[in-house]
Amino acid sequence: ERFRLEYVAEDGTQKRPVMIHRAIMGSIERMMAILMEHTGGRWPFWLNPRQIMVCSVNENVKEYATEVQKTLQDEGFFVDLDVTDNRLPKKIHSASQMRYNFVLVIGEQEKQAGTVTIRRRAASDEQAEQKQTTSL
User: Fold this and answer.
1) Nearest-5° Cα angle at 70, 109 to 119
2) What DSSP state is assigned to residue 122?
3) 73 neighbors 47 (Cβ within 8 angstroms)
4) At a CB cut-off of 8 Å and minimum separation 6, what does 12 contact?
């Protein structure tokens, strides 16, 4: 009404157009930008596409690490596997840099006990990571 827009309809009469404004994508983009800024790239677990990294200590536990990855993926989690020849501290550091929420470390003891050692991402880079062992 403010712009006094009109058009001529097929029957020759003048009609006022109706415009509906929807800004769904703009709202989503703003929300994502606020979330990224607020979390500093440390996404909450439910939103993070990099939820869990499974790291094997050596070649002997590669099969068990793959089994753990498959079990967690079957439960619906986003799980990646690092069975490279890199040393364990480098694997953990790399996973931390990529902002994984959890790093599961698997060595000979974990394989024999059927467990994993969980390293939880710290709330800030200065805090030490918490560790605990649990069975699947």
Assistant:
1) 50
2) P
3) no
4) none
* Cα–Cα separations (whole angstroms), residue 40 to 35, 36, 100, 132: 8, 6, 13, 25
In degrees and rounded to multiples of 5, residue 10 shows phi and psi of: -60, -30
Residue 44: burial class (beta carbons within 10 Å; 0-12, 13-18, 19+): exposed
- Sheet of 130-135, strands arranged across: 79-82, 52-56, 102-106, 115-120, 130-135
Which pTM does this prediction carry? 0.70
Residue 96: CA count within 13 A, CB half-sphere? 20
Query: How confident is the model over 21-73, as pLDDT tens digits?
Result: 666 677 888 888 888 888 888 888 998 989 999 999 999 999 999 999 999 99
